[in-house]
What we know:
- The structure holds two protein chains of two kinds.
- Chain A is mainly beta.
- Chain A has strands at 4-6, 10-14, 19-21, 23-25, 31-38, 45-50, 56-58, 64-68, 73-78, 87-95, 102-103, 107-112.
- Chain A has one domain: Immunoglobulins (Immunoglobulin-like), CATH 2.60.40.10.
- In chain A, strands 2, 5, 6, 10, 11 and 12 form a six-stranded mixed beta sheet that branches. Chain A has a four-stranded antiparallel beta sheet with strand order 3-9-8-7, with no helix packed on it.
- By secondary structure, chain B is an all-beta fold.
- Chain B has one domain: Immunoglobulin-like (Sandwich).
- Chain B is 0% helix and 50% strand.
Amino acid sequence: AQSVSQHNHHVILSEAASLELGCNYSYGGTVNLFWYVQYPGQHLQLLLKYFSGDPLVKGIKGFEAEFIKSKFSFNLRKPSVQWSDTAEYFCAVRVLNDYKLSFGAGTTVTVRA
Amino acid sequence: AAGVIQSPRHLIKEKRETATLKCYPIPRHDTVYWYQQGPGQDPQFLISFYEKMQSDKGSIPDRFSAQQFSDYHSELNMSSLELGDSALYFCASSLGTGSYGYTFGSGTRLTVV
């Protein structure tokens, strides 16, 4: 069965620090990849997505992610975090021609001012 | 821009009662997905509908049923509620199989007491 693994359960860092969140998936076929952010009490919001083309994807709020097919990875990065980046981050995968998204367990990011 | 609308936002029910959650996709979206997110958990896929037909089924209990109507809105019916059903239920919509992405609603927070 398709699975999505997020390596970090909780990350705590200071403002201006760099952030990298790991995401690996298990499916060997063609996939679409997503990163969502969920602020406290709010719904999931799309940060970025990869469907095809340039494996380095830039999203909103200064986030980017790199798809490395050989490693089945889609890690999220931000060079300099802000206090407002405190949230839960979910990696999600959609298998080509499937309907649903499969989510990772999520990573809670706490940014200290 | 119109978003995915879910109602109600909050719902408190007693054990063994029945609840109905509603989801209105954004205009032109013909696919609806239901997810359950327990406290501190990743979203778990329940069920999806495309053009009023069930398109996929996940870990949805037999006590739950859902359908999509002619106007593409969907309702999730939950019977014989249990304490463990307390969670955030959110729905997402897409055009077709999600090749163009997904839009999430804010969710219905169900508390079973």
